[in-house]
Amino acid sequence: MTDKPLRVMQLVSNLDIGGAQEVVRTLAENLSGAGCVSVVCTFDDGPLRVEIERLGIPVEVLPERHYSVIDLPRFISEVLKLRRELLRVVNKYQIDVVQTHLLRSMDFLALSLRLKAGPKVYWTFHNSLFDLRRDHLSEHQWLLKPKRMSHHLLYRIGSHWVSGLVAVSEDVKKSILETMNGIPPDKISVILNCVDVSRYGKSINRNILRLGLGFVESDHLMTLVATFKRQKGHRFLLEALSTLVPQFPNLHLLFVGDGELRDDMQSLTRQLNLERNVHFLGMRHDIPEILALSDSFVLPSLWEGLPMALIEAMASGLPVVATDVSGTRQVMVPGETGILVAPGDADDLAGAITQLLTNPAHAHAMGTSARQRVESLFSAQKQAREYMSLFEQAQETTSLRLASSGGENL
User: Fold this and answer.
1) Do 62 and 205 belong to one domain?
2) Fewest beta carbons less than 10 Å away: which of 40, 53, 130, 180?
3) Which pTM was predicted?
């Protein structure tokens, strides 16, 4: 090892507001705080870019993609152009490590950077159901099966060449091994998603903030921060709420986020006569404040990896109702930090929410325990240390191998 600081590039599909993107922001910030040089690179610009650059971390935006594999000549030309741009960024910042997020097929483009003693490359898997799905293909649905098979083959081959795979939970690692049979288990490291705890649970004037959104102190505000897509299970939460409102008229649900199913969920809200109790806040840049003025948090996902929104809510000291899917049980302690329910079960959701509303003392105690659990197990500083250890170990191994071989290229 030398005294030169480690230079790490976070390569992410886009900079929209989302869980994996928040991981990128948190990692870049805290790796920098640990003495690393951080750079963020993306294929699609978004609102998170401003927050990252405000931290003093450079952001590089690659040219937008236009062609699919159907138009093979243009697809190949475009991929080669993207690779040249990636190499430009790697050389500009003298990058030692590239960590990818949400790239799918572009993971293999990043892997090609390893040629001729290039940077180490780590693929990060944020979701237990990471396989190519029908909703990933806006057209040419017939390509789903062959593309899925080719992905499996490429990941199996690439796993022997890539520096390592990172799973954000034990469940995600298990899913990788089951879905893509043949990947060496020792190539997969589990490093849990974490948050900057200091951003959450701050003392605020709740009443003023609530009045600003049109709520009073006696209202119970239950929040969900999630993109409007099938995975997040908004429909089941609305169905549960329709049975609760007659008994708890002051229960208000705050939907924070945007996405392809927002219009559908607004339509369902009207069908269920829930307009008074369901509030669509859209994309927000003040999530810590929204959580601070909330009374509880709910996450009705059908599948997850290790949900950042859940960790953020617990860091805010909120009691949580969440579905028992991959990752949530690793974050929560059922009955101690919140309540776990079956996924896709509106009745089970309604029952758990009723428990929170009818036993506020226990709900408060669960929120306190939730905050303590995040502080001890899910802090961003801990996450940064674990990544630094992984990256530095790889650098030391490479240095020893180069020294023993007389400095030949990999």
Assistant:
1) no
2) 53
3) 0.84
